[in-house]
């Protein structure tokens, strides 16, 4: 009998259920008897001892179901990782729940912050196995995270739809893409959707270069221009500010996000009609695409194998087309940023895509 705790933490994404199903199916297929404790709403459930008992049957029919059957939340990581009383108290509560339920292992499905907490619990002596989740694809130690490809599909579809209306009206359109502080999602959706201009945090933009690219297209006979702009895109001037100064600027912003500021500048400087479309959380919703169903099933199975082998303290990762295990201590607290000189960026530039640099 294995007693397994499971939780999904941080922003949700499309293949969380598929990944949990993979873990349980793998163990079930090996004839393992298990008690599954599904903690509700991420680490909150572990802190408060809030869980539901699950059986392998509960994981049937989950392959295509978006969201998470366990619920998720963002526990403010500061309140866990600060060495103050509140932080210590939360960690103590999590340990207490784990030991009270006599868990053999806790399986954590999460992105950057959640992996950091998973590692903290590992340091505290808990048996942890984690799975790489995020639409942002910014987890260190893995080439791919589940949720990413499905989000690329949604964002690409948004850009596809915008093409026809942008053409009809002869407008400049900005599609704002999620991705937090990295540009993986915007870059991939931008290329897949045929965006003319892609602005990502890794390459601070010069608004005049962006405008030049729009005017060049108009001169060459294009009725419209589409920009894929990462929610974390930043101008060359703003990139010179300190973090504190930039935060202050953002908080005094007249615009809901950087895309609207860019739109305003383009409109004022060119006199062209500009519109902004924000697919927002749609990018995290709906069914996982086939790639993510396969990918999440595979990471689930690999986690199941680690559980069977009693190998703890690892995150399942995808490296050089192989599933591997990466020590959690190496993953925690690191971000996988998109290298400015990545070949995909060079290739995108060779397609004629402007990055505003
Ligand atoms: O990390 C996933 C993500 O969707 C980011 O792309 C985005 O910046 C953030 O989460 C949005 O978070 P929330 O759902 O808390 O608004």
From TrEMBL:
Binding site for ATP: 11, 74-75, 111-114
Residues that hold substrate according to the record: 134-136, 171, 178-180, 231, 275, 281-284
Binding site residues for Mg(2+): 112
Principal location listed in the UniProt entry: cytoplasm
GO cellular component terms, semicolon-separated: 6-phosphofructokinase complex
Pfam families from the UniProt entry: PFK
GO-annotated molecular function: 6-phosphofructokinase activity; AMP binding; ATP binding; diphosphate-fructose-6-phosphate 1-phosphotransferase activity; fructose-6-phosphate binding; identical protein binding; metal ion binding; monosaccharide binding
GO biological process: canonical glycolysis; fructose 1,6-bisphosphate metabolic process; fructose 6-phosphate metabolic process
Keyword match Kinase: yes
Active site as annotated: 136
Its EC number(s): 2.7.1.11
Record pathway: Carbohydrate degradation; glycolysis; D-glyceraldehyde 3-phosphate and glycerone phosphate from D-glucose: step 3/4
Top EC category: transferase
Catalytic activity: beta-D-fructose 6-phosphate + ATP = beta-D-fructose 1,6-bisphosphate + ADP + H(+)
Keywords: ATP-binding, Cytoplasm, Glycolysis, Kinase, Magnesium, Metal-binding, Nucleotide-binding, Transferase
Cofactor(s) listed in the protein's UniProt record: Mg(2+)
Localization in the cell: Cytoplasm
Residue intervals of the Phosphofructokinase domain: 3-306
Site (Important for substrate specificity): 113
HAMAP family: Phosphofructokinase_III
Family, similarity comment: Belongs to the phosphofructokinase type A (PFKA) family. Mixed-substrate PFK group III subfamily.
Function according to Swiss-Prot or TrEMBL: Catalyzes the phosphorylation of D-fructose 6-phosphate to fructose 1,6-bisphosphate by ATP, the first committing step of glycolysis.
Record-linked PANTHER family: ATP-DEPENDENT 6-PHOSPHOFRUCTOKINASE 3 (PTHR13697:SF52), PHOSPHOFRUCTOKINASE (PTHR13697)
Quaternary structure, from the entry: Homodimer or homotetramer.
Protein name: ATP-dependent 6-phosphofructokinase
Annotated source species: Butyrivibrio fibrisolvens
Gene this chain is encoded by: pfkA
């Amino acid at each position: 009998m294995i007693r397994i705790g499971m939780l999904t933490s941080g922003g949700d994404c499309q293949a969380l259920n598929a990944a949990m199903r993979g873990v349980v199916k793998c163990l079930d297929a090996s004839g393992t008897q298990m008690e599954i404790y599904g903690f509700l709403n991420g680490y909150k459930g572990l802190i408060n001892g809030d869980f539901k008992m699950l059986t392998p049957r509960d994981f049937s029919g989950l392959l295509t179901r978006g969201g998470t059957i366990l619920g998720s939340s963002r526990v403010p990581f500061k309140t866990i990782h600060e060495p103050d009383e509140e932080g210590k108290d939360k960690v103590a509560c999590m340990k207490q729940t784990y030991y009270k339920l006599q868990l053999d292992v806790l399986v954590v499905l999460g992105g950057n912050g959640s992996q950091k907490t998973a590692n903290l619990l590992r340091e505290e002596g808990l048996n942890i196995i984690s799975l790489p989740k995020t639409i942002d694809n910014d987890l260190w130690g893995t080439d791919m995270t589940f949720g990413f490809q499905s989000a690329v599909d949604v964002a690409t579809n948004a850009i596809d739809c915008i093409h026809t209306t942008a053409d009809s009206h002869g407008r400049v359109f900005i599609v704002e893409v999620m991705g937090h502080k990295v540009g993986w999602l915007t870059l991939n959706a931008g290329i897949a959707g045929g965006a003319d201009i892609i602005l990502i945090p890794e390459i601070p933009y010069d608004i005049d270069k962006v405008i030049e690219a729009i005017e060049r297209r108009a001169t060459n006979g294009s009725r419209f221009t589409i920009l894929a702009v990462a929610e974390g895109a930043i101008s060359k001037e703003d990139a010179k500010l300190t973090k504190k100064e930039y935060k202050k600027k953002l908080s005094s912003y007249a615009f809901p996000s950087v895309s609207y500021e860019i739109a305003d500048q383009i409109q004022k400087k060119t006199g062209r009609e500009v519109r902004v479309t924000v697919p927002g959380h749609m990018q995290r919703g709906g069914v996982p695409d086939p790639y993510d169903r396969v990918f999440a099933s595979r990471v689930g199975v690999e986690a199941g194998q680690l559980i069977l082998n009693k190998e703890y303290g690892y995150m399942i990762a995808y490296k050089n087309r192989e599933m591997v295990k990466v020590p959690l201590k190496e993953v925690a607290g690191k971000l996988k940023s998109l290298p400015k000189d990545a070949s995909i960026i060079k290739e995108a530039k060779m397609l004629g895509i402007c990055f505003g640099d």
